[in-house]
Design goal:
348 residues; alpha/beta; Rossmann fold; 7-stranded parallel β-sheet; 3-stranded mixed β-sheet; 12 strands
């Protein structure tokens, strides 16, 4: 009887060991297969690639040997970005495109196909930021945010999908935001549309995985790209610009754009489902998941201490400068704007 029990225990131990070994081997093989993906020789399309985070990622991808296509609505900024990237070496294609227009998106992808063939990696990075109390926001502000952060990534994704599916391989990166995890006061159109993008991206990940296409949802916190100068501000626009650009400049609140870009590209290379970039983004996402009431209380407290003027006129950050925003406190953001082609952008 004792011998029989020992044999059964040994069998269970062997089975458990074999199972664990099998799972470990499968995970190891999966990791090895995923790590084989390299950007060298790949065609990468970056929307909103003429400045800010998109331009930073384009620089890094060229260094890794990728062929990089960038697009943007503002042709002067796009041309400056193309000239800079070409001087650094590598193959660059810069195409004017409003990604909110599906006809222009089809033309964009066709141009890339004609030049280099199918798109291997799509990075949906184009964005718009409107800052101000919700009472100052119009339906047009919400439409603009949804058109840019939901419909545009869907248009570009649908345009590249047929070739990716045909080849059984592809990478899609959707640059969402911590605002797509926790709705930030005075950024309601932005946050609402980023929540929509997170849902779209997660759903695409689930459905496209079986076709060999890996979708990564990126949710960064504040990044020092220099973008506040070209964001839109409403209500007391000088006060709104002040708190926004100060938060964007402080090292504990924001993250260096180059460091963030490296993390994003690493997540794409691995095929991660999600990348929370920066400690504030991770803390906010975890806090929202584990303590939603506490998070709601904190965001309400923040809202009460933000400017309350609700006038509907909107202006760029470049038109909202004050001595405070031109002080040493925002030096890091001003340097980032200079590096990342955020200066001298035409005002629409």
């Amino acid at each position: 009887m004792a011998a029989s029990r020992k044999n059964k225990d040994a069998s269970r131990f062997s089975l458990g060991t074999l199972t664990a070994a099998g799972v470990g081997a499968a995970l190891g093989l999966r990791k090895a297969l995923r790590s084989r993906f390299q950007f060298s020789g790949r065609t990468v399309l970056i929307t909103g690639g003429s400045r800010g985070l998109g331009l930073v990622m384009a620089r890094l991808l060229l260094k890794e040997g990728a062929r990089v296509a960038i697009c943007g609505r503002e042709e002067t900024s796009l041309e400056r970005a193309r000239e800079e990237l070409e001087r650094a070496g590598g193959e660059v294609l810069a195409i004017p495109c409003d990604v909110r227009d599906p006809v222009q998106v089809e033309a964009l992808v066709s141009a890339v196909h004609e030049r280099w063939g199918a798109v291997d990696v799509l990075i949906n990075n184009a964005g718009v930021i409107q800052v101000g109390p919700v009472e100052s926001m119009t339906m047009e502000d919400f439409r603009e945010a949804v058109d840019t952060h939901l419909w545009a990534p869907l248009y570009t994704t649908l345009a590249v999908l047929p070739e990716m599916k045909r080849r059984g391989e592809g990478r899609i990166v959707n640059i969402a935001s911590v605002g797509g995890k926790v709705s930030i006061p005075h950024l309601v159109p932005y946050a609402a549309s980023k929540f929509a993008l997170v849902g779209l991206s997660d759903g695409l990940r689930a459905e496209l995985r079986q076709a060999g296409i890996l979708v990564t949802t990126v949710c960064p916190g504040l990044l020092r790209t220099g973008s506040p100068k070209n964001s839109w501000f409403k209500g007391n626009h000088e006060a709104e610009y002040a708190w926004f650009t100060l938060g964007d400049s402080l090292p504990l609140m924001s993250m260096n754009a180059e460091a963030a870009a490296r993390k994003i590209l690493s997540a794409c290379r691995r095929g991660d489902a999600e990348a929370l970039v920066g400690l504030p983004a991770k803390l906010a996402a975890v806090g929202r998941a584990l303590a939603p009431n506490l998070t709601a209380g904190i965001t309400a407290f923040v809202s009460r201490n933000l400017p309350q003027d609700s006038t509907p006129d909107r202006v760029r950050g470049t038109e909202s400068e004050t001595p405070l925003t031109l002080s040493w406190l925002t030096e890091l953001t001003r340097r980032a704007a200079e590096r990342n082609n955020e200066n001298e952008v035409p005002i629409h």
